[in-house]
Amino acid sequence: MTRILILDGHPASGTFCGALAGEYAGNAETRGHEVRVRHLCATDFNPDFGVSRFKDAPPLEPDLQALWDDIVWCEHFVVSHPLWWGGLPAKLKGVFDRILLPGKAFQYVAGKPLPEKLLKGRTAEVLVTSDTPGWYFRWIYGAGVRKQTEKQILGFCGLKPKGYHMFSPIRGTQERQRAKMLARAGALGRKAA
């Protein structure tokens, strides 16, 4: 079966993003997949890259090194996160800034405008919670964070986008609506990889 890494990318604990990640994980495990779950809220690291050159990159803290090792281990990477101000939470963006480095996630090649993708052979899926209705996110806002996440972060490093799933609107939902969203995340986990 498939090795799946799920990152609950909400910077707080006890969130609906975490519940979606858990539902996905549980259902993927019942299908025989090997699943590891990481929680952004439990990681301790400086999200600020803090230097102007990749060659001066600070060493990875233990939590970031463990997450990087899991990304290398996995065949399918799932990120569950809230949409904040049209983008990723700062701490989650900091994870990508810190661990997706040249020589590890991508490599510049002399004479070529785009780098070699070092994480090829893996797929990725994104679960996003939002108070913005999905249609408004797509048609009015232009889904900028989707493009950034799929093309300029995951795809840039070779992770092939497999799905970008909006769970919205969250604000004002009743228990039955949230139960349907959780069931949808579970169905995605059953169909994983």
TrEMBL record:
<feature type="domain" description="Flavodoxin-like fold">
    <location>
        <begin position="3"/>
        <end position="185"/>
    </location>
</feature>
<dbReference type="InterPro" id="IPR051545">
    <property type="entry name" value="NAD(P)H_dehydrogenase_qn"/>
</dbReference>
<dbReference type="InterPro" id="IPR003680">
    <property type="entry name" value="Flavodoxin_fold"/>
</dbReference>
<comment type="similarity">
    <text>Belongs to the NAD(P)H dehydrogenase (quinone) family.</text>
</comment>
<dbReference type="Pfam" id="PF02525">
    <property type="entry name" value="Flavodoxin_2"/>
</dbReference>
<dbReference type="GO" id="GO:0005829">
    <property type="term" value="C:cytosol"/>
</dbReference>
<dbReference type="GO" id="GO:0003955">
    <property type="term" value="F:NAD(P)H dehydrogenase (quinone) activity"/>
</dbReference>
<protein>
    <submittedName>
        <fullName>Putative NADPH-quinone reductase</fullName>
    </submittedName>
</protein>
<dbReference type="InterPro" id="IPR029039">
    <property type="entry name" value="Flavoprotein-like_sf"/>
</dbReference>
<keyword id="KW-0560">Oxidoreductase</keyword>
